[in-house]
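HUMAN: Ready with one sample?

ASSISTANT:
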Amino acid sequence: MPSSIRLLTFDAAGTLVRPWPSVGAVYGSTARRFGISVKDSEVDERFYHAFGKAQTNLKITQGEEKEFWRHVVCEVFRPFADDVNLNPLFEELWALFARGDHWRLAEGAKDTLSELKSRGYELAVLSNNDSRLRNVLDDLGVSPLFDEIFISSELGCEKPDPEIFRSVERTMRKSPDEILHLGDSHSRDFEGARKAGWSALLYGSPRLEEAQIQAFPELLELLP
């Protein structure tokens, strides 16, 4: 890693945190309580399809954050709902994922972040998420480790849009060569950061890049 790095930014969902035990498990069990008969595996598959499709629709992504998720939930359950009103189910799911109960930190993340902070690095979250993320990070006990939390729905742009990276630079008063971003999306995190002039590491499996880690503690070997 370049010796000029002073600020480390981290993607949230899929990198720093993950749904627990899974989106399908939480959505499925909640739906059944509302009288919708559905398998967790079906819900999980439909969720990632609906979520991915919604992310490419500017009309949806540029609207209110809660309406984005209402659209996704309705798309997931529409084939199974018959005459069931999906709004109460949506409100329940919205509230469930606003708490830390259904999220888990990546293994070794908290200790790694603490050590990096002790080494003098500034830390920030940079996430294509909504404002519920703040409460989730509070519940998981990691908010104090971050100097700033940048959330796309609050900024009005999202990765890989160069403007979201520029927003971080302006707020943190850093130049591109002083920032390293870690995230699990090749297009949004890895390529987005690199096109903005930042250093970048891809997170997770399978290995797609030489500049990639599969566990948070590996950062301590790369950053002095």
